[in-house]
């Protein structure tokens, strides 16, 4: 079956030129000169790809692209523009275009772009991830309804089409690798490899060989020339897992690779150009490591182009029922059991537990529960003792990770206490400022100044004392 390609162009000559480059025997091409007709056809009949050919400024490719997405048409979009600029290309990719070509384009360019996008779509349909939980309450297998996770999902969608370097931070078990895979799957490089390197698994010398490659005889055991991951991941994505563990020497070499986009094998003198997108992950604060001299500042700034911070599970307790039930259903189906779910008491206790291992710990515990008690409701007494014995903290609070964050949080807490103190004093005195100040043991001007600081205004009808002109009632 031929792929269905829709073409919109504001110039008949340009449209005929593109139609000549796309033979009917290979592409089922239909041409439209009106955006509404195009969108109507795409919505009613469906399509595999949309080509937007801009010849004059009267046609706005980005507006057509936004209208397609607003109509929930998910087909890949290629923009061909005779008014191409770098800024326009970046904007188009950020808006979700699969490719942006300067016009007029050659047959090879348009065929390559179309074939790559159609192949990527077919691959995604043919090989779905076995770990993706099918749900409308998440993104790419990552479940979450809290504000922090929705912001992460939105950020992935916006930055994936670009080639910017990304730094994904979060505690162990929060799903950093899933974020990396989601970025790659939604990027222009998705038909090329995604490779990962664990920066904690190898000694510095071996890690450099793994990343940059080596030539035969460059060190003991180098019995053959080997390509590094930077070369193997050509035109794809390379993930550096736990980048905080890189040695100072490797940090310097990585910085040079990012600056020059060229790599040199260990023991070699020649450099080779690379074309990769780099995504780094870390469970430590690189900014804090920079302050104490444990990580290079210049490398940190190179890696931290687009930061994505994943919240720990204890900071999103409202997502625990969603995750627990999704995992339980997944494991029960895999084991051929009839899932019944968790009792309300079990869910409430799971929301209290702090989950130091985050989503990974939750997933492993749910798997254990499915194996042991699948087919019946998971009750409170089925939960491991560490979860059953967990108690709600007196004042649940996100603990600060830096001194600056601690000072901001301290100021916030004091401000909230001070504001509550003033409101309670006013309420007890029927909003009479003089009586409120005397009751709490403060001078009226000082009490008055605190009210101004917090923007508090007492109910004037309750404060019957005559006021001086210009004074806060």
Characterise the protein shown here.
The chain is an alpha/beta fold and 473 residues long. Helices cover 45% and strands 13% of the residues. The chain is built from 19 helices and 16 strands. The strands form five sheets. Strands 2-1-3-4-5 form a five-stranded parallel beta sheet, sandwiched between helices. The chain has a five-stranded parallel beta sheet with strand order 9-12-15-8-16. It has a two-stranded antiparallel sheet with strand order 6-7. It starts with a strand and ends in a 20-residue tail after the last helix. The C terminus is likely disordered.
Layout of helices and strands:
Blueprint: E1 4-9, H1 12-21, E2 28-32, H2 35-45, E3 49-54, H3 61-70, E4 76-81, H4 86-95, E5 99-102, H5 107-126, E6 138-139, E7 142-143, H6 147-159, E8 166-169, H7 176-185, E9 194-198, H8 204-212, E10 213-214, E11 226-227, H9 229-232, E12 237-241, H10 248-260, E13 262-263, E14 272-273, E15 277-282, H11 286-291, H12 297-303, E16 306-309, H13 320-334, H14 344-352, H15 358-373, H16 385-388, H17 403-428, H18 433-440, H19 444-453
Helix pairs in contact: 13-15, 17-18, 18-19
């Amino acid at each position: 079956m031929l792929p269905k390609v829709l073409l919109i162009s504001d110039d008949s000559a340009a449209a005929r030129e593109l139609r000549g480059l796309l033979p009917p025997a290979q592409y089922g091409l239909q041409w439209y000169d009106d955006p509404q007709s195009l969108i109507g056809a795409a919505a009613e009949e469906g399509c595999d790809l949309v080509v937007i050919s801009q010849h004059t400024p009267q046609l706005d490719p980005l507006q057509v692209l936004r209208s397609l997405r607003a109509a929930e048409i998910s087909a890949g979009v290629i923009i061909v523009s005779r008014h191409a600029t770098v800024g326009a290309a970046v904007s188009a990719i950020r808006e979700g275009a699969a490719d942006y070509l300067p016009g007029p384009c050659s047959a090879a360019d348009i065929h390559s772009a179309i074939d790559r996008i159609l192949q990527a779509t077919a691959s995604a349909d043919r090989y779905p991830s076995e770990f993706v939980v099918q749900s409308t309450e998440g993104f790419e297998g990552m479940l979450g309804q809290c504000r922090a996770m929705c912001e992460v999902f939105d950020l992935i969608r916006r930055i994936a089409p670009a080639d910017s370097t990304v730094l994904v931070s979060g505690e162990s078990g929060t799903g950093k690798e899933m974020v990396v895979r989601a970025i790659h799957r939604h990027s222009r490089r998705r038909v090329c490899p995604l490779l990962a390197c664990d920066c904690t698994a190898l000694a510095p010398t071996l890690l450099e060989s793994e990343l940059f490659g080596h030539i035969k005889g460059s060190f003991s055991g180098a019995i053959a020339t080997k390509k590094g991951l930077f070369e193997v991941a050509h035109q794809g994505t390379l993930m550096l897992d736990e980048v905080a563990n890189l040695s100072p020497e490797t940090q310097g070499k990585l910085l040079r690779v990012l600056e020059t986009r060229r790599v040199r094998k260990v023991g070699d003198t020649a450099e080779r150009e690379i074309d990769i997108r780099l995504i780094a992950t870390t469970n430590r604060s690189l900014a804090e490591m920079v302050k104490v001299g444990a990580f290079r500042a210049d490398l940190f700034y190179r890696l931290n182009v687009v930061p994505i911070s994943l919240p720990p599970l204890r900071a999103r307790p409202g997502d625990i029922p969603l995750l627990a039930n999704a995992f339980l259903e997944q494991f029960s189906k895999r084991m051929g059991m009839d899932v019944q779910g968790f009792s309300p008491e079990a869910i409430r206790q799971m929301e209290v537990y702090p989950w130091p291992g985050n989503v990974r710990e939750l997933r492993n515990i749910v798997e254990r529960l499915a194996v042991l008690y699948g087919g019946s409701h998971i009750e409170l007494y089925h939960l491991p003792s560490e979860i059953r014995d967990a108690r709600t903290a007196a004042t649940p609070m996100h603990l600060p990770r830096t001194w600056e964050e601690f000072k901001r949080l301290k100021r916030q807490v004091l401000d909230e206490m001070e504001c509550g103190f003033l409101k309670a004093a006013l309420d007890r005195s029927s909003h009479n400022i003089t009586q409120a100040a005397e009751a709490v043991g403060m001078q009226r001007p000082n009490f008055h100044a605190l009210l101004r600081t917090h923007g508090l205004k007492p109910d004037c009808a309750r404060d019957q004392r005559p006021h001086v002109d210009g004074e806060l009632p």
